[in-house]
Write a structure and sequence with these properties.
Blueprint (H helix, E strand, L loop, with lengths): L6 H5 L5 E4 L1 H15 L5 E6 L6 H9 L3 E4 L2 H9 L7 E3 L6 H9 L4 E4 L2 H13 L4 E8 L21 E2 L3 H10 L3 E7 L9 H20 L6 E3 L19 H11 L7 E6 L1 H4 L3 E12 L4 E5 L8 H5 L5 E3 L6 E7 L8 E9 L6 E4 L20 E4 L5
Parallel strand pairs: 1-17, 2-3, 2-10, 3-4, 4-5, 5-6, 6-7, 6-8, 8-9, 9-10, 12-14
Antiparallel strand pairs: 1-11, 11-12, 11-16, 13-16, 14-15
Helix pairs in contact: 5-6, 8-9
The structure holds ligand LLP.
């Protein structure tokens, strides 16, 4: 089954562009909120890195989520979209001084700290401002995730977080620094995770760490388990809203919170991926030696996931109902890796046909580049074009 799109309106727009179905986004957010509120003190932040389109950010903020940022630019985007700074968390292995200062000036909810040197700099900068920064320690839990190697983050060899063996030293350090206050523990094991067993592995590790800290008489106010819930790229319409019921229930069942502790989540992909499609126009259909190519006006500069991670995005010819043929679907960029899909079944393609690359709402528009001096793709929400 193909997606439904306002084709005649699309014909009036310059391609390529991102199109976001805001009804689906709103339904997804309602579902997230309903599922999270089944449990006490479950707090959801939206991972801005997945898509910082201001119109989407506003809708997400209206639905009450907090913001998870990884740069000063994202903090600014979140604040501009109206997220209260008391709901902003800030992570990242390489926070520059100006970015830390920005967080301090806005009194953000928490800095997720990834190393001792960073902790020292936050302490120093907070001291200059006569403030006490709220921090959570991002622990590398050494828990694997069954996903693409480039998007696992919670293994020992990854650059992220504080190693478990160093936890005691870091705890001593936090206690000794006057301008930081330990509020929480932060984790993130990877992205596009569909096996709840991976999250169970994380819960078990968090329980062990909490036990260890309890023996040191330390109970933090919050646990943040990051994001990572995956989506069904193969069938964007079958389950357009990810299974948040199972996701939150998994944490409820396996993660032992202490009394009063809140549990924070940082969901990106699962919130915005399915509502977005990249819409491109077919420039040429070219007969190759033993195959045919559909050459689009969108390329890896607009959606880099297939080239970078060999990621699958469902491709549909949304302007043809003619019999299916096989195509290698490629872009115009001067790189052999500028391929969206090989031997893709599409309704017969002709010049001018509109092609949708589905499930592109997360890590699509935001990762676009100007390589080959190409303009960045525009983003439209459904309200813009009715
Ligand atoms: N929290 C932290 C600390 C993260 O590093 C990430 C994603 C998230 C939350 C949100 O994860 P999500 O719920 O979206 O899985 N560009 C890649 C994905 C990179 C993910 C980076 N970190 C892709 O296109 O698949």
């Amino acid at each position: 089954m193909k997606g439904t799109f306002p084709i005649s309106k699309f014909r009036e727009l310059e391609t390529p562009f991102y199109y976001y179905d805001t009804q689906l986004l709103r339904d997804t957010l309602t579902c997230v909120n309903n599922e999270a509120k089944k449990y006490e003190k479950y707090i959801v932040h939206y991972a801005v890195k997945a898509n910082a389109n201001p119109k989407l950010l506003s809708i997400i903020r209206e639905n009450g989520l907090g913001a998870d940022c990884v740069s000063g630019g994202e903090i600014r985007a979140a604040i501009q979209a109206g997220f209260p700074s008391s709901k902003i968390v800030y992570a990242g292995v390489g926070k520059a001084d100006w970015e830390i200062n920005l967080g301090l000036e806005h009194n953000i909810f928490c800095f997720n700290v990834e190393s001792v040197p960073e902790l020292e700099v936050i302490n120093e900068l907070a001291g200059t401002k006569e403030k006490v920064a709220s921090v959570a320690l991002r622990i590398n839990p050494n828990v694997g995730a069954h996903t693409h190697a480039n998007i696992t983050t919670g293994l020992k060899e990854n650059k992220f977080g504080i190693n478990l063996e160093d936890l005691d030293t870091v705890l001593d350090k936090v206690e000794a620094l006057p301008n930081v206050k330990l509020m929480g523990l932060h984790f993130h094991i990877g992205s596009q995770i569909l096996d709840m067993g991976d999250f169970i592995g994380l819960c078990n590790r968090v329980n062990e760490i909490q036990e260890h800290m309890y023996n040191r008489r330390i109970i933090v106010e919050h646990i943040n388990v990051g994001g990572g819930l995956g989506i069904d790229y193969q069938h964007p319409n079958r389950q357009a809203i990810p299974d948040f019921t199972e996701y939150f229930a998994t944490f409820h069942k396996h993660l032992k919170l202490r009394p009063q502790q809140s549990l924070h989540f940082e969901l990106g992909r699962s919130i915005v991926a399915q509502c977005g499609s990249l819409i491109a126009k077919t420039l040429y259909v070219k007969q190759g030696a033993n195959k045919q190519f559909a050459i689009l006006d969108a390329g890896m500069t607009d959606l880099i996931r297939p080239a970078l991670y060999q990621a699958y995005h469902k491709i549909e010819n949304i302007t043809s109902e003619e019999p299916i043929e096989k195509y290698d679907v490629v872009g115009p960029i001067c790189e052999s890796s500028d391929v969206f899909g090989k031997a893709v079944d599409l309704n017969k393609v002709k010049r001018g046909d509109l092609i949708a690359l589905r499930s592109a709402g997360a890590y699509g528009e935001i990762m676009a580049s100007g390589y080959n001096c190409r303009p960045l793709p525009k983003g439209y929400i459904s309200e813009d074009i009715v």
